[in-house]
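Reopening this ticket.

The earlier resolution said the output was attached, but the attachment link was broken on my side. Pasting everything inline this time so it's all in one place.
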Amino acid sequence: MKVSDILRVKGNALFTVTPENTLWLAVQSMAENDIGSVVVMERGELVGMLTFREVIKTLYSNQGTLGDQKVRNVMDDAPLTVTPDTDVNEVRRLMLDKHVRYLPVMEGRTLMGVISFYDVAKAVLEEQSFENRMLKAYIRDWPEQESVSG
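Inline output:
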């Protein structure tokens, strides 16, 4: 299974902010859309990723307030990315090894979508369930074998 398969099922709705947006605006977008990350775009280019992790760290450093922080000041300005052709097993390894929950999907310089740890887990579970059903159907329809007499 490839990243493109996950995007095809998930869809490619994107939620973006600019580096100059306030952190509060980004948090509002995340809350209103029930998402854990937003892509940071500037002049049509991916320049960063903002996740709930950066928001929580900022809240912690500022004793519970966001202040007038700009997205630029707290975003991950070098997010890991994958391509639509990246194998899901590679995505799983990357997410676990690098401790990331959200990965922008890039085709060249074009942002195709974002996949989350949840999206990957759901896709893998659905693929395994499908394979399991196919194997059970195959076993159930196993042809009778004639016994060999000696």
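Reporter confirms the inline version is readable. The mean pLDDT is 89. The longest helix spans residues 117-140.
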